Amino acid sequence: MKVTTGTTGAELFFERRDVVVARVDGELKDLDQPLPEGAEVEGVTIDSPDGLNVLRHSTAHVMAQAVQQLRPDAKLGIGPYINDGFYFDFDVAEPFTPEDLRQLEKMMLKIVNQNQKFVRRVVSEDEAREAMKNEPYKLELLGKKNDAAEAGEGVNVEVGAGDITIYDNVDRKSGDSVWCDLCRGPHLPNTKLISNAFALTRSSAAYWLGNQNNQQLQRIYGTAWPTKDALKAYQERIAEAERRDHRKLGAELDLFSFPDELGSGLPVFHPKGGIIRKAMEDYSRQRHVDAGYEFVYTPHITKGHLYEVSGHLDWYRDGMFPAMHIDAEHNEDGTVRKPGQDYYLKPMNCPMHNLIFRSRGRSYRELPLRLFEFGSVYRYEKSGVVHGLTRVRGMTQDDAHIYCTREQMKDELTTTLNFVLGLLKDYGLDDFYLELSTKNEDKFVGDDATWEEATRTLAEVAEASGLELVPDPGGAAFYGPKISVQAKDALGRTWQMSTIQLDFNLPERFELEFQAADGTRQRPVMIHRALFGSVERFMGVLTEHYAGAFPAWLAPVQVVGIPVAEAFNDYMFDVVDKLKAAGIRAEVDISSDRFPKKIRTASKDKIPFVLIAGGEDAEAGAVSFRFRDGSQDNGVPVAEAVQRIVDAVRNRTS
User: Fold this and answer.
1) pLDDT value of position 353
2) What percent of the chain has pLDDT over 70?
C-alpha cells in the first residue's frame, strides 16, 4: 500500500497487533517513524523471518539492560540477532555463571512487564560520543563507521551507512530514558511484545569483533519467540539435537573416537564405525562404476610447486598445513650441496587429477572423462572450529573431476546434479534446495567473461532441476562458481552436502588439452564434484539424521538373535548362520544377562532386527521378529525371516 506524508507505520497498522515493523520501499523501519509520501509500505509480522530478527535484537537490548543492572561496571560490546536467537558481548570482571543467567532472566521479565518503549533518535557523532562516553567499545565502533562492513563481526548492527542512531528504553510512566545503546535498529514498539517467550541459553568467552588479537569478552546467548509454545517447541528441538549429537552417539555405539594422542580433528573409526563407513563407500563405488566414472589414486603429499601452479598457495595457504622442507643435501662443512624442497599435505585432489589427464595425449572421443577418488586430504582448520566429524583436519573426500567439451558441459552438469541428488536420496536425505555461489571479487583467477559464462550455465542447470535456488554472493572458490546441495535432516536442520563447481581456469593453468574432431587442440572444461563433501562429515550428518538408528543396510549389526534360554542357543546359531550365508551381519547374544536385559541391550544398540527363539519357535522351525519400535511378529518361518531381512537390506527399505 502507498501512504501520505507524515503517516506512521503504527497508524497504518493500528488494527494489526502482530505487525511489529514496517517495510518501507524494501527497508525495515520502526513503526513510530513518519513515512514518506508515496512510499510502498508492507507490515512485517512478529512471526516472519524479519519480524523474528527484530524480536530477538530487541530482546538482546533488554538482556543488556538487565546485565548492567546486575553488574553496573559491565561495558557493552555488540548484540546482534543470529539464527534462532541473539547474543550480546560484555566486558566484565568475572565470567557469567548459570546462576547469573537465571537471575538475569528474572530481571529481564521485570523489564518486559514494565512495557518500556523502544525509541529511536538520530544523533550527531559528538552527541553519540557524549551518550556513550562510558562505553569504550561503542566509542571504538563510532570510529569504524565509515568501514563498518570490513571492521568485524556484527559492527553493522551498531553503525554503518546513514545516520548515527541511539535507541532508548523509555519508562512509560515517567517518559525518562532508563537505558540506551548505539544501534541502527529497527526495534519492537515496546518490551511487552517480547512477552515471556525468551530464554538465556549459555555464556562463553568471545573476542571483541571476532579477532583473537583483541580483548576477550564474555558473551551471553539467548533465544526469543513470539509465543511460549514456539519457545517450548524450539527447546524440545534443541534437546533432541543434543540427544542426536554424533559425538555422543559415536561413543555410546562404539563407532569412532577422537584420541588426544592424535591431535585435534583427527578421528579414528572403530570396527562398528568401520562397517558403516565401508557400506557407505562400497555403495558409492558401485554407483560410480555404473555411472561411468574411472577410479584413480593419488599420494597424500606433493611438492609445493604443484599448488603454485594451481593457485592454492596464493589463495588457500591459510587452510593448508605448514610445509615440510626435505631432500636437502649438505657438504661435510655444513654448506648446502643440493637445496631442499617444500612438500605439503594435499588439501585438494584436483591438481593431481589434472596431472593424470595431462599424462598423455587426449582425444575428444575420450570425453567426458570422469575421474573419481576416495582421496585423503588435510586442512588446517583452526582449533576453535574443529567439531567432531563435521569439521576435521584429516578427511576423505569422495572427489570426482569431470573433463568435457564446452558442448558437453551443460548436459554433463545436469547429469551430475541428478546423480548427486539420486545418491543422496539412497542414503535417506530427500529434502533439498540449491545454493549458487558466485565470484568473490577479491579472490578469483580468470577473466570476467569466463566467470559470467560459468555462472550462467550453473544457474540454468540449477533452475531446470525444479529445486529452490538461493544466491550465495561471493561464496565461490577462487577458480570458479559452484552449486551446493543443501539437505535438511530429520530435525529440519540444513547441511551443505554435495558441491558441483564449474572451472575454466585450472585447465588453463595446467595447460590441459585434447584433440578436437577438427584436429585442433582445445582446452577441456573441468567440473569439480564432491558428493559426500567428506566421508567423515557425511557420516556425522547421517548419525544425527538417524539418531544412531541406521537403516538396516548401513547398520553395523543388522540382526541379533536372542534365545529365550540357553537350551535354544544352538537353534539360534543355526538361524544366524543362514543369515550370515546370505551376507547379513548377524550375531547371537549368549551373554549371561537375563532375557529382558538382552532385549534392552539390543534396543540401546539400535539393532534393526531382533530374532527371538524359544521352545515353540524351535519346534515350528520359526522365530519371532522384534522391531526397533517394540512391535513383534511371532511364529515367522526361518526361511521367510531370512528372506525378509535380505530384502530389507538389499532394497534399503528399513
Assistant:
1) 97
2) 97
Parallel/antiparallel/unpaired status of strands 341-345 and 301-303: antiparallel
Q: Which residues are catalytic?
A: 350, 379, 397, 399, 401, 482, 528
- Give the count of beta carbons closer than 10 Å to the beta carbon of residue 309: 16
* Count of CB atoms situated within 10 Å of the CB of 240: 13
DSSP string, 66-132: HHHHH-TTPEE----EETTEEEEEEE-SS---HHHHHHHHHHHHHHHHTTPEEEEEEE-HHHHHHHT
Interaxial angle between packed helices 49-70 and 98-113, expressed in degrees from 0 to 180 and rounded to the nearest 10: 110
Instruction: Note whether 565 and 614 are within 8 A (CB).
Output: yes
Tens of pLDDT, residues 70-99: 999 999 999 999 999 999 999 999 999 999
Residue-level pLDDT at 63: 98
Where do the domains of the chain lie, and which CATH numbers do they carry?
Answer: 9-45 (no CATH), 49-241 (3.30.980.10), 268-329+339-542 (3.30.930.10), 559-651 (3.40.50.800)
d(Cα 307, Cα 317) in Å, to the nearest integer? Answer: 9
DSSP three-state, residue 467:
coil
Q: How many residues belong to the chain?
A: 654
Examine residue 186 and say whether the peptide bond preceding it is cis (omega within 30 degrees of 0). Answer: yes
Partners of 371 in the β-ladder? 294, 401
- Measured in whole angstroms, the distance separating CA 90 from the mean position of its chain's CA atoms is 27
92: left (phi over 0), alpha (psi -120 to 50) or beta: beta
Binning the chain into helix, strand and coil, the percentages to the nearest 5 are 35, 30, 35
Q: How large is the C-alpha radius of gyration of the chain?
A: 30
Quick check: 45 and 51 in contact, CB under 8 A? yes
- Distance between CA atoms of residues 26 and 267, nearest Å: 47
pTM of the full structure? 0.83
Question: Which residue, 528, 466, 475, is CA-closest to 500?
Answer: 528
Task: Look up residue 610 and give its three cell numbers.
Answer: 531382533
Residue 542 and residue 550 in contact, taking contact as beta carbons nearer than 8 Å: yes
Peptide bond into 524 cis (omega under 30): no
Q: Quote the pLDDT of residue 269.
A: 97
Other residues' Cβ atoms within 10 Å of the Cβ of residue 447:
10
Regions of the chain short of the pLDDT cut 70: 1-5, 146-154, 160-161
What does the pLDDT read at residue 286? 95
Helix (H) or strand (E) holding 260: none
Give the integer Cα–Cα distance in Å for 23 and 41.
Answer: 6
Alpha helices in 427-534 (DSSP H): 448-464, 505-509
Partner residues linked to 398 by β-bridges? 374
The answer for residues whose C-beta is within 8 angstroms of residue 648's C-beta and 6 or more apart is 552, 553, 608, 609, 654
Q: How far apart are CA 3 and CA 225, in angstroms?
A: 30
| Contact in structure between 249 and 548 (CB atoms under 8 Å) | yes
pLDDT at position 309, please?
93
Contact yes or no for 42/27 (Cβ under 8 A)? no
CA distance 506 to 525: 9
